[in-house]
Amino acid sequence: MATLKDIAKEAGVSSALVSCYLNGSKTMRMSEETRKRIGETIQRLNYRPDRLARSLRTGKSRSIGMLGGNVSNPYMGHLADEALDEARKHDYTLIFALARTERNEIAEAVDFLLRNRVDAIYSATLSVAECALLKDRNLPVVLPAYSAPGMLSVQADVTEAFCDAFGFLRSRGHETAFSYLDKPLPWNGCVAKAVETTGFRLVHQIYEDSVQPCFDYIAEQRPGAILLNGQSLYPLLDMIRGMEDYKPDLVIGVDEFHCFLESPLIVGGVRTSTAEKARRGIQELIRRIEDPGAPNEGVISLAPGKFIDFTSGNIPVMSYT
């Protein structure tokens, strides 16, 4: 098995320079030609650094924790797959901790990641209210879609997409619609801007702990069109199936998955990119692990969301590279 000294000798450089290359250190300058030669030598000799030794030397584990929820949810699986691929590209290990919505489970999952000494956390389950679990840990944390003090967030502006959605609903004869979103989601602000811009009549409910009051409204008022985040799609469809002679038009928040095939009631979607959320989030975490001076708070803007007409039969594929 090749050693660091073997790499240095073969590449014609010092062991210290090879070590700087492996650790991503900027303490020693090297030309692009030297960097390329070291990289090619490592690949040719199939060198694998000792992670434990490197961790003891640098104080970094080169691992990122990922808090995930229901693995049967296609969105969660896709997010994890993209995050794992991006972490591997940068020679980082992704450590998964699964938890449902119960606070004690999330606390246990966070503790598991901290005990494994991860350098940063990508959280797909941590709500704003639960961010206190990581307060004062001095770890970079990314939340997809949500914002919280002391943490990073990857978000896509969907204001224009909602404007287009309202125009689409008007074209289908709807002068009003009902929408509901969870309280911390920045999409609430986008909806408000879109209503102001278009003048569309929208009954918008914001829920916090339970979506049930929104379902109660739907059961009582039977709105002709509903806009919702795709997270609550399945329970809504179950409820509608039990309501006689009720077939509303649904516009849902979606990612790349063609979940509109789940029901002919789904006529449109506000689409953002799961791949971009995952990959940009991992990139931003790695940047902060390797540059501790970078801010650990703020919003990273992604490509704006788009409205997709599912009735047209022409569904564009979103990609992120």
Class inferred from helices and paired strands: alpha/beta
Q: What's the CATH C level of the largest domain? A: Alpha Beta
What integer is the average pLDDT?
85
Q: What series of H and E elements makes up the topology?
A: HHHHEHEHEEEHEHEHEHEEHEE
Helix content: 25-40%
CATH superfamily of the largest domain: Response regulator
Number of helices: 11
In the CATH hierarchy, the architecture of the largest domain is 3-Layer(aba) Sandwich
Shape: elongated
Q: Sheet with the most strands?
A: 6 strands, parallel
What is the number of strand segments?
12
User: Which residue ranges are poorly predicted, with pLDDT under 50 across at least 5 consecutive positions?
Assistant: none
Number of domains: 3
What is the CATH topology assignment of the largest domain?
A: Rossmann fold
- Identify the strand order in the major beta sheet: 2-1-3-4-5-11
* Separation, N- and C-terminal Cα atoms: 34 Å
Radius of gyration from CA coordinates: 23 Å
Percent of residues in β-strands:
15-25%
